Amino acid sequence: MSQAAPLSRxxxxxxxxxxxxxxxxxxxxxxPGESETPNSQTALRELSDLIGSPEDAINVFDFRDVxxxxxxxxHYGYLATGVDGDETLRANREGFRQFDLRARRLVDVSSVDTxxxxxxxxxxxxxxLAPAGSQKAFHPDGEMAAARGSTAQGHHQILSTVxxxxxxxxNAVRHRPAWYQLYPTSSWDVTRALLRRAEGAGCPAVxxxxxxxxxxxRETLKRSVKADTRDCSNCHEAGPTGWLxxxxxxxxxxxxxxxxxxxxxxxxxxxxLRDETDxxxxxxxxxxxDDALRCVQYGADGIIVSNHGGRAExxxxxxxxxxxxxxxxxxxxxxxxxxxxxxRGTDILKALALGADSICIGRPYLWxxxxxxxxxxxxxxxxxxxxxxxxxxxxxxxxxxxxxxxFIVAG
Length: 411
Ligand SMILES: Cc1cc2nc3c(=O)[nH]c(=O)nc-3n(C[C@H](O)[C@H](O)[C@H](O)COP(=O)(O)O)c2cc1C
Prior knowledge:
- The structure is a single chain.
- By secondary structure, this protein is α/β, with parallel strands linked by helices.
- The chain has 14 helices and twelve strands.
- It has helices spanning 9-17, 61-70, 73-80, 87-94, 142-151, 167-173, 188-200, 219-227, 268-276, 289-297, 319-330, 345-353, 363-372, 374-394, and strands at residues 99-101, 116-118, 121-123, 127-129, 158-159, 179-182, 205-209, 280-286, 302-305, 336-339, 358-361, 408-410.
- Helix 2 crosses helix 13, helix 5 packs parallel to helix 6 and helix 10 crosses helix 11 (319-330).
- The protein binds flavin mononucleotide.
- Flavin mononucleotide binds next to helix 3 and helix 13.
- Flavin mononucleotide binds at residues 78-79, 92, 130-133, 160, 162, 181, 209, 284, 306, 308-309, 311, 339-342, 361-363, 366.
């Protein structure tokens, strides 16, 4: 009597992918969020294909799959979530398909220059770390892993207001200080205190985030919190601002009765900020040309085109599609950065050809951090730098400064 051959690891993984057991093991064949994006190549990596070290990674998605397996459900949900059904999160990836690249031939690309200039400073790479809160939810080293893993290779970093590491500690390990992202809260005293700390730590610029006047509807996060059976009260204190009480930037500040939301914030806030600080001011979360123009008129020194990685308004519109109207309106007066869905060197090339000065990444470096700490952050950035260089060489681009609309056709 013949015996059934034992299942190989690969065929077992294939069996598992179609099995009702899968959710019980913490996987889902179609987890809401990033896994549904078309460029992730596969909705589910086979279990045997998860990388065991940063060196095994072929692209940045390899880190996402390890992060999903490593993190507690609620923390992965915080990282992955978009809003509503994650349509805008997916749009951020799909938007890149609206723009195809038009390569130039017979250009000497034996050496390429990936440096860019922003606010009078030269950076070796246009890849900036976007602000992201609570990074110790992803790895015990949190923001320090991001700072150490990015600074040596010349990456700029923007530090969130709601970090789990202070701005002083982060800047102490960076070659050049981070920019400080500001959620102003509803108290000017708190805003002023945050600005003084950022200035004292040497931050040359403050990045005012304007796309979250009120909390957004993060359904993927809500579902993942329900799925998490751990007792989280040790780290997350109750009450409307209880979650802020452990954040180092709020140490010593009385947050009782201070709403975090800023539904009252309008254009004059930029003028008020201008009067309060000598730091450069960038406005993050702009998606329209007319708003970008007003930012410049109100004294902003830079714009970040962003929909908060699909975590703010459920517009269904990608950041990359918002970029051209902002570039046109700003007309070179201030630098324009863009974030949302950047996962490939070719994504970066497209944004720079459309007129961006630099791009920011959020989830990819957090995937790297969750998977392998600082080494993961370093490898994610190394992969993106290598993909960008390759994309430049294959599209006939010697220097990022050469990029213009002639490299783009409608997709
Ligand atoms: C886990 C997480 C936390 C974030 N926290 C902040 C924040 O504190 N302040 C902010 O301005 N943006 C925050 N963002 C948005 C990012 O700065 C950035 O706009 C977005 O992640 C870019 O999209 P990407 O993740 O597709 O690269 C956060 C994003 C993520 C994924």
